[in-house]
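Model it.
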Amino acid sequence: MKELEFISIIKESLSKSSHIGDDCAYLKELEIVVTQDSMVEDIHFSRKFATPYEIGYKSIMINLSDVYAAGGVPKYLTISLSLPKDIDNDFVKEFYRACDELSVEYGFEIVGGDITGSEKIFVSVCAIGTTRGRNISSRNNAKIGDYVITTGVHGSSEAGLWLLNNGITTHPNIVEKHLKPMAQNIFSQEISTQIKTQYSMMDTSDGLMDAVFKMAEASKVTIKLDFDKIPYDKEIEQIAKLADINFKDWIFWGGEDFQIVACVNKNELMKLDTKLYTVIGKVQEYKENYFVEIMYPSPELRSPSPASGEGKSIIVKITNLEKTFNHFKEI
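Modeled.
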């Protein structure tokens, strides 16, 4: 789907569009953030391997992730369900059991929604979060000299999806990361209450590279990443071999890990608990019409040279988000 192109058309079509761009709209005068995400059967999930509970769980979690990635606290959710005729009462009970358990765990309330008929399951959730006492982020706040940090590991959800689609029952912990991702509420609280300057932040629902590229583009900077510093579960290398795929594709392009990536002033970074994040890069001045630069060790040049004491690297420059996937097949 041409998401970026469609968003541009929408903004041009509306007389007021200042709040469109970030995954959460920050309504400062109301002290809230608002987001809405949808899931469609056989595109975002399949009943072949996802239970009603897991579908409900994930539909809530993707919206919580957007609120936390803005720095807010989720308070109220509405849920719209479009259901085919073969859906029974047990499906609805299990779906809402997951929603209720998450509401208790994360402290929000489900306050309404809608139910309609359809040919396939369609779920759309709207989440409202409070911003009181929080420093809210925006993807266009990355500044030259900021450090790029991330939570968790990347690529596991995509690897888990491949296992499910191919009926492979090994690596159950990787499969779990796809079916039941975790929103980063602890890190969100830490950064939004400790950092006092502007900072850029997004979740990785559409992939690590998607988040980094969009922050760089919105902020008109170039972000340099060091591949060796990006955390990932080593199991996905084994799974990628089975799939005959370069595992780097999953790390950079695989979505639905629901981790957080942020660009933070180096002095402010000292206020954060180092156990909650990993530094993976730095924000630089925009140059040569590319927004992301990846330093990736050349396989034959990984060992430090006697002269320099440093290993050499392949530099990959990303100019177009739509073409990103093809870049990583070459390294």
